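thoughts on both lines:
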Amino acid sequence: MTEVSTVLARRQGAAGRLTVNRPEALNALDLRMIRAMLAALDEWESDPAVTAVVLDGAGERAFCAGGDIGVVHSSAVGDPAVAWALWREEYRLDARLARYPKPVVALMDGITMGGGIGIGAHAAVRVVTERSVLAMPEVAIGLAPDVGGALLLARAPGELGTHLALTARRAGPADAIHCGLADHYVPSAELPALVDDLAAGAPVEPAVAARASDPGPAPLAAARCWIDDAYGGTTTVEDVLYRLEAIDEPGPREAAAAITAAAPTALKVTLRAVRRAREMTSVEECLRQDFRLCSRFLRHPDLAEGIRAAILDKDRSPRWRPGTLAEVDDAAVEAFFAPLADELTLPEQSTLWSDHR
């Protein structure tokens, strides 16, 4: 039997085509896939015939649902070195895509979560469709947003990014564009024609704009007032919950319920991470922070328990340790951010992340 490649890297005219090809796992990334993508990007960078890179996912359900959660779980209960190796290469890929000297067009059609945000939302041109669902749902499994996601969320209008981070809320195409996680809405039926345009050598921005349309109103824009009030200021997670629970409306009630169900330690670390990311100027800085946080969570009991409850047993009844926000003190949170003996190293670039948009 011929083995099916989990990354399809090929030339189509002037476009380098990268397709994550693991639809049975919602195109979740494993180490071999990450390395294959890095190799293709290295090859195309010096190929003058390639003027743009198009990144998409196989199937109609997902662009990429994240990193391989099975690897993370086995590392959390066994050998952490396996997850460390995955994250080091994954974060290198995220930074590479953010800095790539040729335009990368990410077609985030379908489920795009966690590691999918890492490979898609740092690209030069980010496209969503009517099927797109974007999220950083890490607090629900006892982890903090990684893959540079805290930086993206920190740049969202007002406190929308904090809201998305603490509730693990999913964003549709209009919300994704409003929050700065995507740039253009293109109906999925138009994607083949868009790829053909790029393969023919059409300039990227005009080609995408010609196929784009209005995604409609963003629900989060309408909720901005109560979200900014609840999450704003030098606040704690406890403060956020108190303010949300004081608003007798469906949106705040749903947000409070989502936060209450998440891991207390992950919530407090996530709030600190997003606040710190507001002062960052490069994706590399955020990725180094992410590696510190994930390395610490890998040895924390909540990560294995969160994956068990949400992914493996699916009982949705995690037993967090500690089980309440009050039991997570500032010193415990700050310890997640301390330097590691073996830090993540990434090439420093002269162009700032903020200049990339």
In short: The domain at 7-346 is CATH 3.90.226.10 (2-enoyl-CoA Hydratase; Chain A, domain 1). The first strand starts at residue 7 and ends at 12. The chain has 18 helices and nine strands.
